[in-house]
Amino acid sequence: MSENMLEDMNELMLQRREKLSQLREEREKAFADKYEVTYHAAEVESNFEELEEKEVKLAGRLMAIRTHGKASFADLMDMSGKVQLYVKQNNIGEDRYEFFQDLDLGDLVGITGTVFKTNRGQVSIRVSSFELLTKSLRPLPEKFHGLKDKDIRYRQRYLDLIVNPDVKETFVIRSKIIKEMRRYLENKGFLEVETPMMHPIAGGATARPFVTHHNTLDMDLYLRIAPELYLKKLIVGGFEKVFEINRNFRNEGMSYKHNPEFTTMELYQAQADYHDMMELTENLVSHLAEEVLETKTLEYEGTELDFTAPWDRITMVEAVKKYADVDFSEFDTAEKAYEAAASVGVKPEEGLSYGEVLNEVFEIRVEDKLIQPTFIMDYPIEVSPLAQKIEDDPRFTYRFEAFVYGREIANAFSELNDPEEQKRRFEKQVEMREAGDEEAQMMDYDFIRALEYGMPPTGGLGIGIDRLIMLLTDSSSIRDVILFPTMRPESNE
């Protein structure tokens, strides 16, 4: 913000504080307790024939004031939208009209009046009385420039919501999507549960955790990176279908599709496999699009996306052959994998296995080409420590990820339920961790113990809700769909 703009801002704030002082001197309330509301702005508009010339009471924020001598028009905004006010000196008295003229944009008021249409046909409210509910001490952004600075918008979301109505609509849609997701899963027989947010062991995903400390127990705990292991313990305990919608926390890099805390839906179903999870995923997402947005075909950043089930299915090896023009099925050694990666301009770090190199080639050369909803199946065992291996080819697992517009939105397995094999996989992860991989998983002996009691064949699925909502609302950044995204602290200046 320029020096001149700062001076103007400071001057406007000073003027508003002077008005506040004057109100207090005159014993006028500047911060009211309550106001009875009978209608919202959108209801007045949509129910005009029923409400014409009837009294209504609304409360909201003044977003525009246009004075014409002894009469003024104003825009009142509430949660539902805007409605025009008609304020006339003859209707409210000279003193109150002068008071109204002295109000500022952003002030919160309660009004009583009758509904009518202007000569131009605009539904309006003829104000008979009003109250100042809250004095706004900071000016709103200038009308024609608005609030466009993304850093300010994300940091001061309250201001963003006031001056950018489409932002509010995005979060209304977000709420409807999550509500409908819950309803859909409950109708399918899933039970919603809650599992711990602080874990003694960081498990269930490959990620670097946040660490906190419990004073009474004198022990470090990890903010959860995934609820997976706890949810699978519930399957061991006899629940057959469970799901959880909640936050995960990962101490990783930030980008337009990564925020350190994010929302996921994770579910587990006994007597199911990853094919069942594919069917559930495509049907759930297409249902959400149709039910909430009334269409299965949406536009995202100018590209039309069709969420209609069924979605394309292709293995990782097939996808690398199709999009990167290199066939990993023709060899199975790490040496050959490195040669294949180099042939398409990918240079993995030293010491990786065949499967890890394949996965890196896929991430670099294939992911961004997966535009329409697509399931990538059969991931290497090295990057899937919790998934059931494919018996005919133990290099790979019954795992898939769902991609849309080059972004992963879902991850699912036929869950590994062999406790001895799971222990070996954990031991391999521990070796990787001791070698310096901070994202490798830890040994979880309690989870092994749970599997030793017997977990039925199980399908598991996780969906990144923030990324899904980005796609369904045509939002370019994950920060656009998180009300208060993680930000650096403001500078002292």
Automatic annotation (TrEMBL):
GO molecular function: ATP binding; catalytic activity, acting on a protein; lysine-tRNA ligase activity; magnesium ion binding; transferase activity; tRNA binding
Keyword Nucleus: no
Positions of Mg(2+) 1 binding: 401, 408
Classification via InterPro entries: Aa-tRNA-synt_II (IPR004364), aa-tRNA-synth_II (IPR006195), aa-tRNA-synth_II/BPL/LPL (IPR045864), Lys-tRNA-ligase_II (IPR002313), Lys-tRNA-ligase_II_bac/euk (IPR034762), Lys-tRNA-ligase_II_N (IPR044136), Lys-tRNA-synth_II_C (IPR018149), NA-bd_OB-fold (IPR012340)
Coiled coil: 6-61
Cofactor binding mode and count: Binds 3 Mg(2+) ions per subunit.
Main location per the UniProt record: cytoplasm
Family: Belongs to the class-II aminoacyl-tRNA synthetase family.
Protein name: Lysine--tRNA ligase
Annotated organism of origin: Halanaerobium saccharolyticum subsp. saccharolyticum DSM 6643
